[in-house]
Amino acid sequence: MTRVIHDSGEGVQKEALDLVSSDVNFPKGHFPDYRIGPNNQIIDPEEAHEAVPLKEIVAKETAQLLEQHKRLSVRDLKEKFEKGLSGATKLSEEAKRREAASLDRQVLLKKLRDVLDTLKGRVAGRNRDDAEEAISLVEALAVQLTQREGELIYEKAEVKKLANFLKQATEDARKVAEEERALALAEIEKARAAIEKVEKALQVHDSASSSREKEEIEELRKEVREARRIKMLHQPSKVMDMEFELKALRTLISEKTQLCNQLKKELAMIKRLEEDSSDLFELEGSDTLGSQLCIIPRVDGAPNITNCPIQWYRVISGGTRELISGATKFTYAPEPFDVGRLLQAEIVLNSDKIIVQTDGPIENAAGLERYVDSLMRRTDIEFNVVVAQMNGKDYSSNSVHVLHIGKLRIKLRKGWSTKARESYSTTMKLCGSRGGGNAAARAVFWQARKGLSYTLAFETDRDRNAAIMIARKFASNCNVALTGPGNQGT
């Protein structure tokens, strides 16, 4: 006996619902965005890496080849074209594989849509709506795949064009390489022939000049022997004797020169006395930098000028006189500004003016320029000084100070204590001391700024004159004319 069991539609619907619910999950309300890989494998988009479009890869490779074209040799260019051709072949094969995969995806989408249609007829309610939404998503995915296939077909055509271009370029490069190789071989052969000719010529030249070189070597040996003989004749003792004799001659010439200058001054004085017997005073001292000039009576019975006004002048070009401010004593020590100029002293006696002047322009001290140059080559120029006066008043301490003359400023210090430090400016003054006294030739007047001035005594007159010259050179580099009070910069 056969037993027949009637199943209602609800059982079938429930079975289909369970099947769809267990196999299909729509957590986001739309069809999952899966990708189908080789062998119909489903790839999660989160796990899959983004593939660079084939068109961008081709454009990038083409740009790199064009950039490297200018600096590649023919052989390297050939290799690059061959690599590009192989790359284009691989890209073409990859495009074919993608096309096959695309066809497989179309088949899978068709199957999936059929399954979803079947499920749609077997479910009802909310699951039916989800199935309809899945079907719409599958159809949209099919449209996207169709568009992608169109792009792949276009890219495939571009790849084919690039492959043909690279193939033709590779053939051209191979031909050019072969031509260049043939030319290079011909040049190598020519170079070899030229080298052989040069080697033969050198061999002939060496064989011809061997005898001549021997003669020249023998002549050089004779010259060396003669030079040694001459060197032996000039013993060191004879050279030293000659140096001593030269020094003695230089000393004698210097003494004769001084005597000659003194005689010239005496003759000039005698002539002046003969021409003008009214001159009662004269200047005593050498007309050189570093000396000290003093007004003395020329004849016995000359009037006393102790209380008479005195003013010193320097005579510049054209006979114009320039007043030396502060020089109102019987003595005056020339400074570097006075070199090459006459000095005059004007004495007012009752209502008459008596003028005495040097016999000639002031001459520079011997060796002063070399001494200044040697000091300026140092990194730090310092002089030991004693402060004689400060702001016109005698300074009580006679301790040694250090005067530092720099390229931008002058500084006076005692040990670690700085007394004054001022940059070069129009208010700064520096000149020889004009107050008279026995130490005037070694003293300077320095006005650091308005309201602060010093009278400094150096160890020697050469240091005093060198300090003035160096300071004025550095001030001139700073566009400042460093002169005495009341003087104009020259």
Provide key terms for this protein.
7 helices; PH-domain like; 8-stranded antiparallel sheet; elongated; alpha+beta; disordered N terminus; 18% strand; 4-stranded antiparallel sheet
Largest sheet: 8 strands, antiparallel
Query: H/E element string?
Result: HEEHHHHEEEEEEEHEEEEEEEEH
The CATH class assignment of the domain at 18-191 is Mainly Alpha
Task: Please give the number of β-strands.
Answer: 17
Class by alpha and beta content: alpha+beta
| CATH architectural arrangement of the domain at 18-191 | Orthogonal Bundle
The total count of helices amounts to 7
Bulk shape: elongated
Cα-atom radius of gyration: 56 Å
Mean pLDDT over all positions: 77
Separation, N- and C-terminal Cα atoms: 148 Å
Percent of sequence in beta strands: 15-25%
Instruction: From the 3D structure, determine the CATH topology of the domain at 18-191.
Output: Helix Hairpins
Helix content: 40-55%
**Model regions low in confidence, pLDDT < 50 over at least 5 residues:** 1-32
